[in-house]
Amino acid sequence: MEFAEVREYQPGDDIRSIDWNVTARTGRPFVKSFQEERELTVMLLVDVSASGTFGTFRTKNEVAAEIAATLSFSAIKNQDKVGLCLFTDRVEKYIPPRKGRGHVWRVIEEVLEYRPQYRGTDLSAPLEYINRVLRRKTICFLLSDFLASGFEKPLRVACRRHDMIAVTLTDPRETALPAVGYIEMMDAETGETLLVNTNDPETRRFYAERTRRQREERLKLFRSLGIDRIEVGTDRAYAEDIMRFFRLREKRRRGVR
Q: In this structure, are residues 98 and 73 in contact, taking their beta carbons and an 8 Å threshold?
């Protein structure tokens, strides 16, 4: 709801909307009137760090780009503004929200074709950035694998100002190691390598437990901040996950349980 005007009180008006300052100056009761804002602003925060280059079916970055493009098409269909923020351990590309088919095609081209300059991940960077540049409440889709830490505070601030939606991208090989003997694993962001014996049951158990604990901590944080979330795997179609999310949001908006 946006403020529209101050007008003189009429019988039936909600007394909670009385503007007491204007009423005191004029000696007659005045009320604040509001109108519903129909035009929405959508901001896509897309993680393009090196950890997103991993994927056993498709890479996480490829899936994130497709989802961002899908959401952009949805925004233009609804005559909404859409903007884009591509980030690694810093904000690499920012396109302010605007309307128009040409603008949306620019957003889609950037998200599909952009090649990042850096490899690390810092979720605080895009969150602090939008907290500075976005003055009005915005629907923010944060697309990432969330393999980072230390972003709780800026996320909490962003949640107070905007409607935050977390789109978590995962791959099945991040939750369970196959027993295929010795393999060399490399951290895509730091280049550090490690020789791992995947035949060792204890190693596989530790790997799975660590991933499970990370997921639980992430979900606990989202719940504590009231953040809506979508979990998308690289091994399955994401359309149904997104449609289910929007159906639930629509039911909640209408008060349907």
A: no
List of long-range contacts for 216-220, beta carbons under 8 Å, 24+ apart? 218/146, 218/168
Q: Kindly state the tokens that stand for 10.
A: 């009429």
Total residues belonging to the chain? 257
What is the CB neighbour count within 10 angstroms for residue 204? 17
Element (H, E) at 235: none
Domain ranges of the chain: 2-35, 41-254
Half-sphere exposure of 150 (CA within 13 A, CB side): 6
Q: Give per-residue pLDDT as tens, 61-101.
A: 999 999 999 999 988 888 899 999 999 999 999 999 999 88
Structure-block tokens of residue 202: 């204890």
State pLDDT tens for residues 192-225: 999 999 999 999 999 999 999 999 999 999 999 9
Query: What letter represents residue 97's amino acid?
Result: P
131: left (phi over 0), alpha (psi -120 to 50) or beta: alpha
Q: Minimal CA–CA distance to 123: which of 210, 222, 208? A: 222
> Angle at Cα 145 formed by Cα 144 and Cα 146, nearest 5°?
85
67 and 167 in contact (C-beta within 8 Å)? Answer: yes
Classify domain 41-254 by CATH architecture: 3-Layer(aba) Sandwich (3.40)
CA nearest neighbour of 64 among 122, 119, 108: 108
Residue with tokens 């949306």: 104
Q: Which tokens hold the place of 245?
A: 């999310």
Who has greater pLDDT, 39 or 199? 199
